[in-house]
Each structure stands twice: as C-alpha cells, then as structure tokens.
Amino acid sequence: MDEPGEIGRRVQRMRVERGLTQKQLAHPSYTSAYVSTLESGKVRPSETALRFLAGRLGTSYEELATGRPAHLATELRLALTDAQRTLATGAADEAAVRYRGLLAEAEELGLVPEQAQARLGLGECALESGELPAAIGHFEEAERLLADEPLPRRARPLRGRAVAHLLAGELRYACYLLESAIDELGASGLADPDALVLLHAAVIGPYMDMGAHARAAHSAELALALAPQVSDPALVAGMHRQVARTFLAEGRMADADASLAKAQAIYGHLQLRTDLAHCHWMRGYVLAQNGELGTAERELRTARDMLSARRAGLYTAQVEVELADVLRRLGRHEEAAGLLAALLELGNSHGAVHAGGAHRLLGLMAEERGETESAEEHYVQALALLERSGATGDLADLCRLLGDLLRRTGRVEAAMDAYRTGLGHRAAPGTTTLGPAPSAAFRPARVSGSRWDADRAE
C-alpha cells in the first residue's frame, strides 16, 4: 500500500473525475469528514475502507491502494499459471525461461506474492534439471517473500527445499525441515489438509531411505486419511505415489501397485509427465522386488525415456540405478555397467544415495566376476557416500556385503568391524536420530495390521 498522501490524492482525483461529492462518495458507510481527512493524507485508510471506496469509484482495491491497474496483476497471475502448466506438461527449461521473465515483471510491479510464485516455479524447474543449489536458493527466496504468511502458504517452497536436500543426499536435514513444519502446523492449529498431505507425502521418501519404516507408515496413514479433503488432484496423485513405498516395505505388493495405478490415472489425465514418469519408476521398482524382472525393465525404461524427453537429467540418472539392478539380475552385466558408469560421470550432482547405489551394484558385479579387489573398492566408496547421506537401510545392507567379502578373504577383524557398523545402523528399526516423531495435527483411526501398529513402540 502506498503512503497516505498518495492514496488521498488518488481518491480525490478519481472522485472528481466521476463527478462525485465527498458526501456522495462516503454514503452510506462513512462521513464526508472522513473522506476529506483521507484525501488530505492525514489518515491511513484501512483495507475495509479502501475496498468500500473502490467499489463506489468503480475501480479495484489494488489500483486504489497502489496505483497499479488491476488487470496487470491479473494478467501476470494468468501467465504464471500458464508457466506452471508448461512445467507440468512440457520441458523444465522452457518453463524456466517463462518464469524468469515473469519474475522480472513481478519485481517491477512490486507484486510480492507473484514474485514468490515465480521463485517457486524456478525452484521446481531447477529440481527437474538437477541444479540443486539453484533450486535451494529459489525455494529459500520464495520462503523469505512469504515470511509473513501463515505456514500453509509457505508449505510448497519449504517442501521443495526439503526435496532438494533429499536429492543431494542430505536425508536427515530433509526430515528435519519436513518434521518441523508438520509440528508447527499441529501446534498452531493450522491443520490445512493440502499442506499436511504435501508434507507427509514428501517425508515418506527420506524416511524409507533411512530405514524409518514406522514413521513412513504413520505419515502414509495420515496422508491417506486426509486425501478426501484435498482439492488438488495432482497432490493426491503425488501422495499415492509416495504411499506406495510404505506398502512395498510392508510386503503389500498388490496395495503398492494399486496406489501407483491410481496415481498414474490421475497424472495421465492431468498430463503431468514428470510425476507420471515417477509412477512408472516406482511401479518398476515394485515389480523388480516381486521378481517380475521383464515387466520391471519395461516400466523403468518407460520412466527413463519420459524423464529424458523432459530433459530431467537428475531423475533420469537416478532411475537408471534401478534399471541397472534389474539388468544385472537378468544377467546383462555389461549393459548395466554402462548405465552406472554414465551415472557416476555426473559427479555429486545426483546425490549420495544413488551414487552409493551405483557403486554397490558395480561391487556386486565385480564379485560375480571374481574381482575381489575391485568389488572392495566399490563397496568402500559406497560406504563413504551412504554414511554421509543417512540412508540407514542401504548402509546396513552394504556393511553386510562388505563384511562377507572381507570374511571370505580372511580378514576377520575387518569383517567384524563392517558387521558392527551395519548392526549399529539397524539397532533401532523404525526410528531416526532426530528425536521424537513429529506430532500429528490429525490422527485417523488405527489401521489394523499395519506396519505402524507393529512398530508402535517407537
């Protein structure tokens, strides 16, 4: 809102242009004396007063308060919506170009909410292209612009920042961000269903990677219970994709596949290509865990091709780890090794969890060829990466592989050290090192037989 003097002069100019007296403008809610005081700049009008006067003058509150024609802001919001659609259905780089132009326009007009929306879009584009530091910067700036807004309005950039840290291999920090937001929502009484589903669905991934299956199941149950209250179908689809991971951990293959099928149907309808690719990705993973390797390969190749077409390099590289594991199990070692080598050439941009997974697979293939020194080297590199990431379940499995290798080569003490490291990370299943689990602003009825019930001791 402009200074009182500027607003007063604007009100006076519009009143005179419309041939109204101060009494006519003020009737029936205010007095002519109030309008006179306002026009002289001696009082700062409330939003209620300005909205009333804007209605009498046939203009918008925004134009009266700031001098900007209302259509400029509306057109900018429409353009931001178009850019969001481009991101959902087209290439991230194309959407990023549009968002950058719209950000400059929003900054020129001084429209803070629209600046935040453009920053959020740029962050999502950077996530897709694997530019994680840039993504974090955009999400942080969006949060800063929305600092005075209630938490539900800040949930999307906060979730984006957490996902960026997760993709960079910083699992514990991603959990901390999401858990803190969930707790804040509960403590403030702002139990917004959209925000809660967004945050609970996002935290399932890092929980699963850290071996915190009880927490993942709890978040899945909360998200599923809230889903009927959510108005955004894309959000519901994303929740179904994440919930499938907890069903998988519980051995509920049919339920996992059903959740993924629901997500695919919604994303196909909305043409959200990247998220649909993630559904194919997770379905391929489910099929691989169930031993259906041929079908799993087809799903994973579909996911990789869709992500590659979107030029989503980070996600493309990550899905290739899953595909390489399927190819290895099918006996196509050379093809699998080629995929993993390409992934490792990306350096640290793809995150420690997937780099560690690549080294683990290369170690397994080296062992199968009888190349124990090469296998040990890959296992050690994977261990260093996974210890930094906090991927507890993957780390424990890797320690077992390394310990077995060391034992077979006669290094019993070193093998025991590796086993102890793995056992240490498995000492408390269903927990993390972050302290108490986040409180729930909404608690559904307990689901009989769920993994959450089994691990309730957490």
Structural category is mainly alpha
Distance between the termini: 50 Å
Task: Describe the global form.
Answer: elongated
Low-confidence stretches: 426-437, 440-458
The amount of beta strand, in percent, is under 5%
Average pLDDT metric = 80
Helical fraction equals over 70%
Biggest β-sheet description: none
The total of beta strands comes to: 0
Number of helices: 24
- Estimated radius of gyration: 27 Å
Q: SSE order in H/E notation?
A: HHHHHHHHHHHHHHHHHHHHHHHH
Protein name: Tetratricopeptide repeat protein
InterPro entries: Cro/C1-type_HTH, Lambda_DNA-bd_dom_sf, TPR-like_helical_dom_sf, TPR_rpt
Region (Disordered): 427-458
Domain HTH cro/C1-type: 11-64
